[in-house]
Amino acid sequence: QVQLVESGGGLVQAGDSLRLSCAASGRTFSIYTMAWFRQAPGKEREFVAHISWNGVTTYYTNSAKGRFTISRDNAKKTVYLQMNSLKPEDTSIYYCAAKRASVWDGPLYEADYWGQGTQVTVSS
């Protein structure tokens, strides 16, 4: 069993940066590939980025490329999402997710575990 707890969200202005963290419980964090998703009010959940078990392979949705960076620290059992140049359209609840695999393959929105989410609000 893995529990995921996100933190780091908040209210910022357009152009600002935020770093989200997702802390995992359990002893086998390194066997999970991790991902970030987001969901804006009235919209479906959207994939943002994923990272392989060892941090070598990353993948971003087009809207995140060049602005967001996903990373992980297996010793701290934590995955991060550094978000720069934030835009109002980035306003969402951000969720981390874990899948027991080396890379995030298979159905994109299928995960073994989900966090409870952290709110990010970007004002214009």
Helix-strand category = mainly beta
In quaternary terms, these chains amount to single chain
Helix content range: under 10%
Order of helices and strands: EEEEEEEEEEE
Total beta strands: 11
Please describe the biggest sheet, giving its number of strands, its sense, and whether it closes into a barrel: 7 strands, mixed
Report, as a whole number of angstroms, the end-to-end distance. 40 Å
Low-confidence residue ranges: none
Description:
- With 124 residues, the protein is an all-beta fold.
- It has no helices and eleven strands.
- The chain is 0% helix and 49% strand.
- Strands 2, 4, 5, 6, 9, 10 and 11 form a seven-stranded mixed sheet that branches. Strands 1-3-8-7 form a four-stranded antiparallel sheet, with no helix packed on it.
- The relative contact order is 0.32.
Q: Would you spell out the secondary-structure blueprint of this structure?
A:
Layout: E1 4-7, E2 10-13, E3 18-24, E4 32-39, E5 46-51, E6 58-60, E7 68-73, E8 78-83, E9 92-100, E10 113-114, E11 118-123
Parallel strand pairs: 2-11
Antiparallel strand pairs: 1-3, 3-8, 4-5, 4-9, 5-6, 7-8, 9-10, 9-11
